[in-house]
Amino acid sequence: MSVKEKGSIPLLHPEAPQPVKIATLLFALVWLRQMFFLVSLLEDAREGLYASQVQREAIATLAFWLVLNATLMLAMVYQKNWARNTQALSTLAGLLLIVWDVIAGNDFNPGIVYLSNAVATVLLFLPSADAWFKKRQY
Asked: Is residue 75's pLDDT more than 90?
């Protein structure tokens, strides 16, 4: 991150569109929810409840996902269009995994977490948000 970017946070400027602010808040809430879930999984793993390789890989995947989402949120705060596009691809991949899971006959209900993530992603592509991401000053 350059020195110029550190001096000013575009999302906090008055001209930053409301949909982007709401989307960032939703992403942060989803991230916190997933972080609490990861912490509970790690506590269970420490107690020996998750012994299989698959379970340990699932925990590592969730940790990676959280790091990726934190990076994308931070980049979106700094008006990075690539982060918005990557988030859209991530949300689309999640949707495809849910569809695949349902087709496979698994009883999986993504609930409010995925819905919040999807709504936040849609907010990033509203006209005001689109214009804001495309007119970076730096």
From this structure: yes
Whether the predicted pLDDT of 50 surpasses 70: no
Name the residue range of residue 114's domain.
17-126
Share of the chain above pLDDT 70, in %: 90
The closest alpha carbon to 65, from 47, 40, 91, belongs to 91
**Alpha carbon distance 85, 50 (integer Å):** 35
Q: Kindly indicate the confidence band of residue 6, based on its pLDDT and cuts at 50, 70 and 90.
A: very low
CA dihedral 33, 69, 119, 13 (to 10 degrees): 110
With contact defined as beta carbons under 8 Å apart, do 32 and 43 qualify? no
Q: Quick count: other Cβ atoms within 10 Å of Cβ 24?
A: 19
Using alpha carbons, list the distances in angstroms from residue 71 to 48, 83, 112. 31, 8, 22
Q: Look at residue 2 and tell me if it is in a domain.
A: no
Instruction: Say if residue 39's pLDDT is above 60.
Output: yes
Instruction: Domain count for the chain, please give it.
Output: 1
Asked if 15 and 127 count as a contact pair (C-beta separation under 8 A), the reply is no
Q: Residue 80's CB: how many other CB atoms inside 10 A?
A: 17
